[in-house]
Amino acid sequence: MNEGFFIEATMNEEAELRPIPDFPKYYTNDLGEIWSSKLKHKGLVRLKPYIGIGGYLYIKLQKNKKQHSKKVSRLVMGHPKTCLLITEIE
């Protein structure tokens, strides 16, 4: 299995890249793609997810020289600490 390897891909211009909270130099979009600017390549590189526990897609991210496995769906939907609950008040 090619865990954590990058794949050559062109960026979809319609999908806006957003930085991933707590992981500088990593980005995601609504298509479920995870991009890295941390590798020694020029520009952004799309990372390849792997299938983990329960059949979910996971991606390995590095922070402070430690590796963290994160669910792709959680990264795309946003970090729980940064989500705001907006309710209608009359």
Feature tags:
three-stranded antiparallel beta sheet; disordered N terminus; globular; 1 helix; 90 residues; five-stranded antiparallel beta sheet; Homing Intron 3 (I-Ppo) Encoded Endonuclease, Chain A; 36% strand; mainly beta
Give me the secondary-structure topology:
Layout: E1 6-7, E2 18-20, E3 23-28, E4 34-36, E5 45-47, E6 50-51, E7 57-63, E8 66-71, H1 72-77
> What is the number of strand segments?
8
Tell me the overall shape: globular
Q: Kindly report the average pLDDT value.
A: 76
CATH class: Alpha Beta
Rg over CA atoms, rounded to whole Å, is 14 Å
Strand content: 35-45%
The strand line-up of the biggest sheet is: 1-5-4-3-2
Structural class: mainly beta
Percent of residues in helical segments? under 10%
Give the number of domains.
Answer: 1
Biggest sheet record: 5 strands, antiparallel
Order of helices and strands: EEEEEEEEH
Low-confidence stretches: 1-8, 80-86
Oligomer: single chain
- How many helices in DSSP terms? 1
Cα(first) to Cα(last) distance is: 54 Å
Named CATH topology: Homing Intron 3 (I-Ppo) Encoded Endonuclease, Chain A
Describe the structure.
The chain is mainly beta. The protein has one domain (6-82): Homing Intron 3 (I-Ppo) Encoded Endonuclease, Chain A (Alpha-Beta Complex), CATH 3.90.75.20. The strands form two sheets. The chain has a five-stranded antiparallel β-sheet with strand order 1-5-4-3-2. It is globular and about 35 Å long. The protein has one helix at residues 72-77; strands at residues 6-7, 18-20, 23-28, 34-36, 45-47, 50-51, 57-63, 66-71. It contains one helix and eight strands; from the N terminus they run E-E-E-E-E-E-E-E-H.
